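Document type: protein sequence-to-structure record

Subject area: structural biology

Format: plain text, a pair of labelled lines:
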Amino acid sequence: MEVEQFLQVVFTGLSQGGIYALIALGFSLVMMATRILNLAHGSFVLFGGFVFLTLSGSWGWHPAAAVLAVLAAIGALGFLTERILNFRARPWKQISLDTAVLTTLALLVLFEGIAFLLWGPDPRRAPAIHPGVFTLFGAVVIWQSVWMLAAALLIGAGLHLFFRHTWTGRAMRACAESPATAYLLGINARRVGALAFTISAALGALAGLLASPVTWIDYQMGGFFMLKGVLAYLIGGEEEVAGPLVGGLLLGLLENLLLLFPGMTGGLLKQVVPMAVLIAILVFRPQGILAARK
C-alpha cells in the first residue's frame, strides 16, 4: 500500500469523522441538558442539507447567506421539537424519558415524510461551499473536507469554553444532574432545554450542509445520520465535548481504514466492525472511551 493512498484514506476519514462529531455533539448537548436521547436529531442534519441545497443551488443564494439562513431555520425547528416533547411538562416534574425517546423516534419518521413531500425521492447533492482540491503530502484533499474537519474542531473548542465559563453552560450541566434541584436554585429547566435543542439542531444543520456537497442525500438519510451520531456519542462517552468529538473522529477513521481491504470485504467490514466495536464498548466500558467510570 502506497503512503499517498494511506494518507488519502486518513484525510477522508478525519473529514467524515468531523461530520459524525458535529452530529454527536448535538446529541451530547441535549443529553447533558435534558437527559433525552433525541432520535429526531438525524432529521436536523437531513433538513440542513436539503435547505442549503435549495437556497444555494436552486435559488442561487450566496453560500454565506445560505448557511446563516439554514442555521436559523433548523435551530427554530429544534426549538419547536423541544416544545412538542415538553408540552405537558412542568419545571418540577419532567416527562418520562421513555415517552420522550419514543416521541423523538416518531418525529424522525414524520420529518423524513415531510422531506419526501418537499424534495421528492431522488438523491441530490448541494454545491460546495469551497470548491476545488489541493495536494498534501501526495494525497488529494477536497477543500470542502477541510471545512468539515475544521468546523468540528472549532465548534468543539467553543462548546468547551461555553460549558466551563458561562452561566448558561453551567446551568445546562446542573439541569442534567437534577432538574428539581436546578428549579429550586432558580434555573428554568424548560428554557435551558429549549436552548439546548436549538443549538443542537443548528449543529445538526451545519453537519448536513457541510456533508451535502460530498455525498448524495435523500429523504431516508435522517435515520443514517442519527445512527452515526449515536455511535460516535456512545463510543466517545458523555465527556461533554471531548467524548463526542473523539468518538466521531475515531468512527470516521475506522470506517475509511476498513475500506483498504480489497474487494467487497472492506465495504462489509465498514458496516459490521463499528457495530462490533460499539457492542464491546457497551459491555466492557459503557461510559465510553473518555468518560470517567462512575
In short: The first helix runs from residue 3 to 34. The chain is about 70% helix and 5% strand. The radius of gyration is 19 Å. The mean pLDDT is 87.
